[in-house]
Amino acid sequence: MMRVVEFRQCSVSSGDFALRELNFHVESGYITGLIGPNGAGKTTLIRSIMNMIRPKAGEVLLFGQSYREHEREIKRRIGFVYDEDFYYNHLSIREMKKIIASFYPTWNDAVFQQHLQQFGLPERKKIRDLSKGMKTKFALAAALAHEPELLIMDEPTSGLDPVFRREILSILSAYIRDGSKSVLFSTHISTDLERIADYILYMGRGRLQFCGTKEELLESYVLVKGPLALLQADRFPFQGLRQTALGFEALLSKQYVSADTFESPFIVEKPSLDDIIVYTQEGSRNGPAAS
Q: What does the alpha-carbon distance between residue 238 and residue 232 come to, in Å, rounded to a whole number?
């Protein structure tokens, strides 16, 4: 199985922010979710993958190749959907498409037209007259039209309605179906990733906190709920702990839980990706048994 993205002992700096000791890879043929709180390093990581920031140490490989010798070839194999608007707003969709298509020998206009019809985008409409959702649709149509092997999406569903978000997820699932294409999907909407992601990259404070399958991450923790009177914060290394007048809720590594660790009236549940992000970040700030 090919490693579509690989970081080898990389350290990357962007202003005062740095990513340190990144050593991981992204498997080809799957959807990989990139998660983490604001300031965790997700955008810096994506810029490193796109060669917009070069590593201070180590190496970044795409499709097993280095940007030093193969930048043009690598970038032609990548599609990118930004959260930000980077188009010429005075141009129409048709005019903007001609500019984008000129960079890609593999441009497939039939695929582009298919997505325009699917998304209800008229070619004569000016970019400046498109809503945020329509711009995202155009960006996705343009990215898919040159049939990239790796599609990178940076917060593409932010601010979009649930119907179109679900439509994007269906398109991505179909896109990787033949096993030859991959998606790296950065988003704050973790419920989207819980629906479609195969693997998760979890960034926190400039370091990679987790790299593996989504199920491995979700199965690594339990969410414990119970009455305050029975809370034993000094007994368990909770990743994060919240207390209210009604009781407590805490994230705990599954290695500390057996069948009889928590009995009634405690409730033990499988956490969501949001739970893991919130509580592990609280734990990194406040200590393993923060209250």
A: 10
